[in-house]
């Protein structure tokens, strides 16, 4: 089981490393189709945050750290940890934010410390050649990681199984929002929100503890 997970993470790292090499530090470099949709995703993920107080946040699958730019424009009192399995992504992020003392980055598949919040944007989309069952197992394991590394709550997004059939791609994973909503309600918290009304072929789930 451990070898299978290691192989999976290696494949994911290679996939995104190639994207970064092709497109640089842009939304395309982390496999999004544009800046507007990327910012819209960030806006919905960050609804998990209570903006009144200073907070810490783990960004699992941080890429080159684009979420940190978004956070800096909205909040002044935060500490940020970016986590990614791709070494080139972390290298790019460290260079990009070398003058930001409250931002740190590590190469890993999970946070090395507990934060107030944890978020994951886009990490469940590209399944490559894995089956639905294999990918769902990985997704559930990663949700456990998000839960364990968060004090106040966590948020994540997925492509939706309600996508138009003619636009769906074999190498992408389209999750059933109802199944994941039920999982989060029964496993993590009574306070769960499903956001599926913002014009993209995806949904966001917020889990408040």
TrEMBL record:
<keyword id="KW-0808">Transferase</keyword>
<dbReference type="InterPro" id="IPR029063">
    <property type="entry name" value="SAM-dependent_MTases_sf"/>
</dbReference>
<protein>
    <submittedName>
        <fullName>Methyltransferase domain</fullName>
    </submittedName>
</protein>
<dbReference type="GO" id="GO:0008168">
    <property type="term" value="F:methyltransferase activity"/>
</dbReference>
<dbReference type="InterPro" id="IPR013217">
    <property type="entry name" value="Methyltransf_12"/>
</dbReference>
<dbReference type="Pfam" id="PF08242">
    <property type="entry name" value="Methyltransf_12"/>
</dbReference>
<dbReference type="GO" id="GO:0032259">
    <property type="term" value="P:methylation"/>
</dbReference>
<feature type="domain" description="Methyltransferase type 12">
    <location>
        <begin position="59"/>
        <end position="127"/>
    </location>
</feature>
<keyword id="KW-0489">Methyltransferase</keyword>
